[in-house]
Fold this protein.
Amino acid sequence: MDGVLGIEEYLVVASILFCIGLLGVILRRNVLLILMCLELMLNAVNLALVAFARYSGNMDGVILTFFAITVAAAEVAIGLAILVALYRRRKSIFLQDLNLLGR
Amino acid sequence: MDVAWEMFLLKVFYGILALVAILTFAAYAVLAERKVSAWIQGRVGPNRTTLPIVGDIPILGPFLRSLGLFQPMADGLKFLFKEEMCPGQVNRFHYHLAPILALIPALSVLAVVPFGQYVASTGADPIPLVLADLDIGILLIFALSSLGVYGIVLAGWASNSKYPFLGGVRASAQMISFELAMGLSVLPVFLWVNEPGSIGGLNLARVVDWQDNGWGMIFVQPVSALVFLVALFAESNRLPFDMPESETDLVGGFHTEYGAFKFGLFFTAEYAHVIVGSAIFALLFLGGWHFLPGVEDPWPIGWSGAALSFLWFALKTFAMSFLFIWVRWTLPRFRYDQVMKLGWGKLLPLALGNLLLYAVLASWMG
Amino acid sequence: MNEEILFYLFSTLMLFGGSAVVLSRNPVNAALYMILALVSLAVLFLTLDAFFLAALQVLVYAGAVMVLFLFVIMMLDVDLRERSRPNIMAAALGLVTTGAVVAILLTWVGEGSTIRPSVGSVPTPGNPLAFVTGSKAFGYALLTKYMLPIQVAGFLLLVAMVGAILLGRRTKLKSSEGKDGS
């Protein structure tokens, strides 16, 4: 690991972050936190994309990240609006209270 | 000691110098606020505080005393030596974190604000005096100042008490609403400055260079200036938009539960915001350090010219800060729903229309 | 050398923030750790010379998206702490799988480091889509190769705005209709 940073270091960090986010989505019961962990996963992918763009020397990955950030902003706006609507109906934002189909 | 290390030390030194300068300005902005408000309301304002030795000089001493020039020191000492209270119901960690989070973004913005120019020799290109001459200057300023809201939101939430909480919620909604209009109002300026074939970018010094004939951007784009100014007032939580701390309906808003030094940090952050905001407005719309409209810059070559350009720029910044204070003591506060309606219903469409207009104009003029 | 220090410091901070998001019981704490992770990620972007993107990351994610999260957490203002324990089986399986993935990846580090190409600051006419540090490349790429995607993205934002407003209003409309009926 001595010398200049290689792309591997960035990719490893990105994948670890992705795994953390995935673990959060699996484990947590709070929809708010699940949304946050989804954002973590998205960010991990963004990091990988920028690293690829930097090491391959073209702009495409960075532009794709730009779009990913845009889409994430839209996604969060909608997701939180759904969450608030959900809370108004069910008075809960925990997954175990949202099992209407299962019963 | 190689060159890189020396450069690093130099940058640290200038950084500390800038911090000291902005903190002093903030302290004296508080004094200015008290004096101007007193003047507007027909009062005298602070005129009692004095220092032992300087205050005893025959004519000068009483004169400085009547100006209240020693008041900021007394205020600062008061904040420092008051008992550090911590109310019982608060969430301790976040309660202490909040004032720090409020101050850091307000100060770190300074790194990309240029404050003067240095001309090495006749005919040489002027070098802007700035800590970090970045391509993304204005974007970084927006990014950092958007982090400032966490201090307020967190203070409101951690206080565990209803009025601060309302203040925190209001602050977050207000910040999101006005940030949009603010960003859109600056776009036409950069659209205008970045002619085809230029290097391009969001550098603040380049905007100032464009205004080197002394005619500020405010004459070219008055609507952008108006939208930016209103959004600036809203973002720095000053009256008529001080929803998060409106003392008549929320006691003290987000800082109701704060006292002593922690309150002092919030206070400093607010005035640092005012000064940095004024500086950015002066850079973008008032021509920065360039002299009067149509007059060639009289700044001499070398460091004396750099100092003069800085002083001229500081004068413009102080004039803008005066406007902030003037507005605060003249206009009444908006109601909260009016603020939201103004942000989304009026300012945002106006900024969008303005952007479209200048985009069409720019393409028409080639 | 500086880049390496920054990389190791802030990737550690980012991973710490990310794990804290998953582990914290209080949503406000989680949001704060999330901000830490996002800002650290912006610094990692800086070490990759993507300055524009780093500023954008702080502005959009840390500045706007997380404020939205905090706003919703505060607006709901209920005890959002989780009452039930997570499923032990799911937890164990998830930990084992992700742990295995990370372990495999860690063995991979340091094998033949790729050399980082040098970059300019402004796009050249010959190769306008090459990676550069300046923000002009963004404008160039967005208005040539990515013309259609950016319009779609703009439309997406519009749809999201309309959708969010609609979702936010629905219950209000229902309740007022109910009042009219009664």
User: Anything to note?
Assistant: The mean pLDDT of chain B is 83. The two ends of chain B are 51 Å apart (CA to CA).
